[in-house]
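User: Let's play a game. I give you a shape written as tokens, and you guess the letters that built it. Ready? Here's round one.
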């Protein structure tokens, strides 16, 4: 008897896949264009100059921009990060500057408030100093009309100290994660680079006008400076996960209905399969002829396992005989 060859039930790609891909592309591009336009509008301002408590100039806009140029000139994004963007051999320069600023501010404020070093204060006094530090760093003292940002004495003191800190950082590979000895040794470049770090740290901590979070949405995370996760970040993170899982569920449900020949709406309503399982799923699950399966003698197995294996092969031979009567 001539063997009955199984028909190829492979179905063409559903038009819904093409429509969905096109829709995702259009929506994605619109979102990217919107975000790109807002990035320039909502970018943190660079002050024309930063002044200390007595009105003296600490650094200028030119220092910040040239400090960014130093950062790019020496390829420091291949060593550390700014606002989380870059490599992970070194630190996040923004986070490191900001945390060091908080430590310095605690010391300065402890002397101003209690006349002692921060480490010698009681627990309640330390908490009072920490609260004052968080308020100071969150308070946005930028004047957009004059283009002037006013630093407190603690912030100015920290800036001067961190110029020396970053000069020492670039002394050798032990502290830089592999950078050459004296990678950046020019004092002017070090000061400009520190000004750039100081500006990124200010934008990370100071509240955006009219908001309860910073220009960077409280990034990097550091409770010591008041940077904690916002409710908006939690909401949209949860929504993105729900939308991802929901989309996958819809796609899987639609594909299962097509493979089982169930009711399918849209362009696939006339493309139902002939059996309970058709298409790629049916081909994958169809019983293969026993000759395509590797045979292994069960003599090395325990008697009970060998008996079960013989029964299993007998059932497969009977099933293959039904699908291919001539074999």
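Assistant: Ready! My guess for every position:
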């Amino acid at each position: 008897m001539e063997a009955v060859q199984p028909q190829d039930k492979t179905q063409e790609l559903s038009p819904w896949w093409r429509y969905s891909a096109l829709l995702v592309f259009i929506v994605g591009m619109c979102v990217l264009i919107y975000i790109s336009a807002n990035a320039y509008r909502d970018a943190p301002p660079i002050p024309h100059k930063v002044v200390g408590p007595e009105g003296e100039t600490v650094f200028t806009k030119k220092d910040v921009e040239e400090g960014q140029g130093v950062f790019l000139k020496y390829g420091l994004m291949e060593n550390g990060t700014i606002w989380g963007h870059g490599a992970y051999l070194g630190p996040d320069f923004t986070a490191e500057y900001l945390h060091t600023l908080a430590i310095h501010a605690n010391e300065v404020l402890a002397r101003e408030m209690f006349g002692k070093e921060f480490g010698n204060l009681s627990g309640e006094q330390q908490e009072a100093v920490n609260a004052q530090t968080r308020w100071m760093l969150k308070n946005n003292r930028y004047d957009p009309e004059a283009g002037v940002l006013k630093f407190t004495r603690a912030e100015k003191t920290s800036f001067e100290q961190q110029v020396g800190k970053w000069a020492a950082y670039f002394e050798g590979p032990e502290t830089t994660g592999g950078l050459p000895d004296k990678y950046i040794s020019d004092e002017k470049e070090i000061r400009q680079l520190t000004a750039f770090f100081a500006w990124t740290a200010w934008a990370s901590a100071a509240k955006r006008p009219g908001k309860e979070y910073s220009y960077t949405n409280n990034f990097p995370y550091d409770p010591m400076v008041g940077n904690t996760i916002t409710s908006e970040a939690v909401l949209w993170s949860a929504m993105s996960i729900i939308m991802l899982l929901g989309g996958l569920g819809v796609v899987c449900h639609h594909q299962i209905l097509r493979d089982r020949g169930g009711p399918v709406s849209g362009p696939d309503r006339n493309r139902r399969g002939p059996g309970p399982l058709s298409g790629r799923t049916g081909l994958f699950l169809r019983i293969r002829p026993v000759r395509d399966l590797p045979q292994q003698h069960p003599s090395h197995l325990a008697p009970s396992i060998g008996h079960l294996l013989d029964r299993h092969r007998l059932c497969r031979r009977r099933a293959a005989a039904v699908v291919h009567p001539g074999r």
